[in-house]
Amino acid sequence: MLNIGVNGTVLKVKMCENSSVEAVKELLREKPVSMEMEDYAHMEKFGSFGVQLPRNDQYITTSAGDVILSEGNLLVIYYAPNTWNFTMIGKIQGVSEAELKKILGKENITATLTWEEN
């Protein structure tokens, strides 16, 4: 399971199955990744992995809690809908849309990503 630590809260992400997710797992098995995430258009937070990962893009409409790989190197946490070609990484579990918006806040954030074997 992917854990995203942000603003004192750990968000648990149920992962999809694709080569992009496998690459994220391998990256995080080496060490945790911290990234600055910017707020964009009052619908998402995005930050760079700093490396290019495999893409499995599909034309989808996101919903609150979706965790996406965009452009092969950006991790995006959606808290409002958007439609585009994205690679689905997973879905945040156990948090409502309102709770997610409160956790993420309106400003830029620092997120720490860790991998937890089930």
Could you explain the architecture of this structure?
The chain has 118 residues and is an alpha+beta fold. Helices cover 17% and strands 47% of the residues. It contains two helices and nine strands. Strands 1-2-8-6-7-4-3-9 form an eight-stranded antiparallel barrel. The radius of gyration is 13 Å and the shape is globular. It starts with a strand and ends with a strand.
- Distance between the ends: 7 Å
| CATH architectural name | Beta Barrel
Low-confidence stretches: none
Q: What profile does the largest beta sheet have?
A: 8 strands, antiparallel, barrel
- Classify the secondary structure makeup into a structural class: alpha+beta
Task: Please give the share of residues in helix.
Answer: 10-25%
Sum up the structure in keywords:
single chain, 118 residues, alpha+beta, Cyclophilin, eight-stranded antiparallel β-barrel, 2 helices, globular
Topology:
Elements: E1 2-6, E2 9-15, H1 19-30, E3 33-40, E4 44-48, E5 58-61, E6 66-70, E7 74-78, E8 83-92, H2 97-104, E9 109-115
Antiparallel strand pairs: 1-2, 1-9, 2-8, 3-4, 3-9, 4-7, 5-8, 6-7, 6-8
Entry summary:
With 118 residues, the chain is α+β, with helices and mostly antiparallel strands. It has helices at 19-30, 97-104; strands at 2-6, 9-15, 33-40, 44-48, 58-61, 66-70, 74-78, 83-92, 109-115.
